[in-house]
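S.,

Sequence below, as promised.
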Amino acid sequence: MKKTFLTFCLASLLSLSSYAAWPDGTIQDSIKANPELADFYAALSITGVLAEIPPSGDYMVFAPVNSQFNGMLKNQAQCMPVDECKNALAAILRNHIVARNVSLKDAMRYKAGIFSVNNHFIPLNDVGAGRFSVEGQHILERHVLDNGVLYITDGVLATARERSFITAYQQMLPPSESQESSTVNKTTIPDPACGEAGCPNTKTT
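The prediction came back faster than expected:
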């Protein structure tokens, strides 16, 4: 009995320490401070969507981790200068923002989901043990902050059509400088030692 009680106390302390380590402040501050959300934060900043979340209020933001966000957007640096690609990305980012803070349990019970700021419906599912998934993506962490709640998810909230737009735009974009530098235009020049007829061994530049 004593061992069970001590185990419970230790688990409680560890849980409290993990929450204490999480940075205080706004949702924006917390996303910025978390390296696992760096790509999501960069996209929010460059598209201007970050400024649409007020520092006061009661919002909900579902933030995908880098590995999942990068699975959809291969190269942010190439996408951002192109208005069509940037606007398509901004629309997807707004899918992750809800302009009110509600209980996920209540939202699932009464409406089976919630709507984002751009009227994107986010279906909710109870995956057991008091945990939920949003649009099929699991919620990894939940943090209550000054202007709402930040949920860290293992996937991006986007329709198949929205994903296809981003894929299509990326395929249309010119190669990056690194890709261009790796592709060298080679010109064959004859070796002077072979005379006018040339020889099998040629030099390339």
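The first strand starts at residue 59 and ends at 64.

Coffee later?
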